[in-house]
Design brief:
It contains seven helices and 32 strands. The protein is mainly beta. It has four domains: 55 residues, no CATH class; 123 residues, Cupredoxins -  blue copper proteins (Immunoglobulin-like, Sandwich); 185 residues, Cupredoxins -  blue copper proteins (Immunoglobulin-like), CATH 2.60.40; 202 residues, Cupredoxins -  blue copper proteins (Immunoglobulin-like). The strands form seven sheets. A six-stranded mixed β-sheet has the order 10-9-12-17-14-15, with no helix packed on it. The N terminus is likely disordered. Belongs to the multicopper oxidase family. Lignin degradation and detoxification of lignin-derived products. Its cofactor is Cu cation. This is Laccase.
Length: 613
């Protein structure tokens, strides 16, 4: 019987050229816990032998291996796309826009071969994947890897360890994310159901922005001008702008539904620089997941998604047979920022409707309705309470407390730079910063510099708090127009392995307040609370009972957010605003999480095909 058990499970243990899968340990623990008879003792001794043999043989790898390995082939290449009366050449994956969907189950391993067939450098980030012990494959260019150069390939290898839900992947270099992105759908383990009534169908909706001009040229113009970017030419749903845009009457994404049935919509905001409202005319949405984590179900007439956020919602086709618009409109609370103030539509189409029916239109909040946005965000709670039996574990004792101001700055005009004009505020150059430090991209990857002890590429003195405390929301440190310049550098914040970390984000009004979607690589975090105005620990209401577990938080315009996470994943992890123009201007930093004890707390060596700078 023991031999049968062993051979029936051996193929799932990962006995391959990568070494033995880590769950030998898990199987040993399970064996010890479940069996008390002689066979159980024999089983335990057998697994102890295997564990001892492979550890001492040096072939137990730290890279987790999934129960099933799934292979994908991504070819980054240009494609001709006709939209808004014009044919444009854009960068895509496999000539698809949006790109191909990755499907997997919880604990599966994925290998994605990315081949760059364009003249541009490329890297791919797997947004929301926590990359446990696989930091080398996280993807942000010059943070965890050098980019994949023209004609070169790189295999990303990672495991969806204890993860399921709706995530996405996207380019993480320059502004290629505008068209290089796609869904990443992780189903529960085989035999594990959703914690809600299963839908009859699921549909993925990727929200985005579309520009008629070349996105690389647009980025170059913004850098050289010192000013801000123009708004996009259309908002799109699964690559379709909808009937209100030029030459787009038939360029409409449609979902066919049957009256009385329930559907799951997986909604991803892959937009470059714009936050969005989403709603379905005359239909209530029930939110059941945010950023790949289950939530307490709640009903809403709209969502507000920052770039980088995802929501799963249930919707019941309980209205009279007809056509109903699914609407995408902008949320822009900042003042004097150019943007496209136009709504795009997809269609929820009941079968058996009359063709002449005019679609119903939804009512969404006004473009700057921060009160509604805050009320929506406050409803997002973790499905599970913070109890001893619960899968969530909010750190209550803090080892490292950080206070990060985030916002825009203005650099003085440098007339000695012939490639840059000064079209920012007061004849200056737009910048952005965290704790008044504007991030400068290094010339090699930070992870490589750290792993190989390369000096001169970064410093480890990122400040825990701003140098000066003042009225962050309403003024600059020394009055507007006088002290708007940040320091510029490549600095990281060093965390010991296992530390419980709290970060307070505070939006600043140095140049102007704005909503900032902050994304943390390598971890999800507990969002304890958000609010408007300056953070005050005496009055801030924080949720330690059922805080949502997220990877991207919308720090409110002129407001604050508090997160906590445990630094139990060694490596260098980027944290940045997911409005790409703000990242370009420097609103980013990185955490360096040191190794712990043993292989399972130590950054593995780099893969042999890691791209070189």
């Amino acid at each position: 019987m023991l031999a049968v058990v062993f051979f029936s499970t051996a193929p799932n243990m990962g006995f391959d050229d990568q070494g033995v899968r880590i769950n030998l340990v898990l199987r040993l623990v399970l064996c010890m816990d479940m069996f008390k008879n002689k066979m159980g003792k024999g089983c335990c001794r057998f697994f102890l032998f295997l564990l001892f043999f492979f550890i001492n043989g040096g072939v137990l790898k730290a890279w987790p291996k999934g129960s099933v390995t799934r292979y994908y082939d991504f070819k980054v290449q240009t494609a001709s796309i006709t939209k808004l009366c014009k044919t444009s050449t854009v960068v895509t994956v496999n000539r698809m826009y949006p790109g191909p969907t990755i499907y997997a189950r919880e604990d599966d391993r994925v290998v994605v071969k990315v081949t760059n067939l364009t003249p541009y450098n490329i890297s791919i980030h797997w947004h929301g994947v926590r990359q446990r012990l696989t930091c080398w494959f996280d993807g942000p260019a010059y943070i965890t890897q050098c980019p994949i150069q023209a004609g070169q390939s790189f295999k990303y290898r990672f495991t969806f360890l204890n993860q399921r839900g709706t995530l996405f992947w996207h380019a993480h270099i320059s502004w290629l994310r505008a068209t290089v992105h796609g869904p990443l759908i992780i189903y529960p383990k085989q035999g594990v159901s959703y914690p809600f009534e299963p839908p009859v169908e699921e549909h993925v909706i990727v929200l985005g922005e579309y520009w008629l001009r070349d996105i690389q040229d647009l980025e170059r113009q913004v850098k050289e001008s010192g000013g801000g970017p123009p708004g996009s030419d259309a908002y799109i749903l699964n690559g379709h702008p909808g009937p209100l845009h030029n030459c787009s009457r038939d360029d409409v994404y449609t979902i066919n539904v049957t009256q009385g049935k329930k559907y799951l919509l997986r909604i991803i905001n892959a937009a470059l620089n714009m936050e969005h409202f989403f709603g379905v005319a005359q239909h209530t949405m029930t939110v059941v997941e945010a950023d790949g984590e289950y939530t307490k179900p709640f009903d809403t007439s709209f969502l507000m998604l920052t770039p980088g956020q995802t929501y799963n919602v249930l919707i019941k086709a309980d209205q009279p047979i007809g056509k109903y618009y699914m609407a995408l409109s902008p949320y822009m609370p900042a003042k004097s920022v150019p943007f496209l103030n136009k709504t795009s539509y997809a269609i929820l189409d009941y079968v058996k409707h009359t063709k002449s029916m005019i679609p119903h239109e939804p009512i969404l909040p006004n473009v700057n309705d921060t009160e509604s946005v805050q009320a929506f965000a406050d409803q997002v709670k973790n499905l599970y309470p913070n109890q001893h039996w619960s899968p969530i574990d909010v750190p209550l004792k803090i080892d490292k407390s950080l206070f990060f101001t985030i916002g825009l700055n203005v650099l003085s005009c440098n007339s000695s730079d012939p490639d840059r004009s000064c079209q920012g505020p007061n004849g200056g150059i737009f910048a952005a910063s965290v704790n008044n430090i504007s991030f400068r991209r290094p010339m090699v990857s930070l992870l490589n510099a750290y792993y190989n002890n390369l000096e001169g590429y970064f410093s480890t003195n990122f400040p825990d708090k701003p140098e000066k405390m003042y009225d962050f929301v309403n003024e600059a440190p020394n009055n507007i127009g006088v002290d708007t310049q940040p320091a510029i550098g490549t600095q990281v914040s060093v965390l010991e392995y296992g530390w419980a970390v709290q970060v307070i984000f505070q939006d600043t009004g140095t140049v102007g307040t704005e909503n900032h979607p902050i994304h943390l690589h390598g971890f999800s975090f507990y969002l304890l609370g958000t609010g408007l105005g300056n953070f005050n620990s005496a009055t801030a209401i924080l949720n330690f009972y059922d805080p949502p577990y997220r990877n991207t938080v919308g720090v409110p315009v002129g407001g604050w957010a508090v997160i906590r996470f445990r630094a139990d994943n060694p490596g260098v992890w980027f944290m940045h605003c997911h409005l790409d123009v703000h990242t370009t201007w420097g609103l980013s930093m990185a955490f360096l999480v040191k190794n712990g004890k043993g292989k399972m707390q130590t950054l593995p060596s780099p893969p042999p095909d890691l791209p070189l700078c």
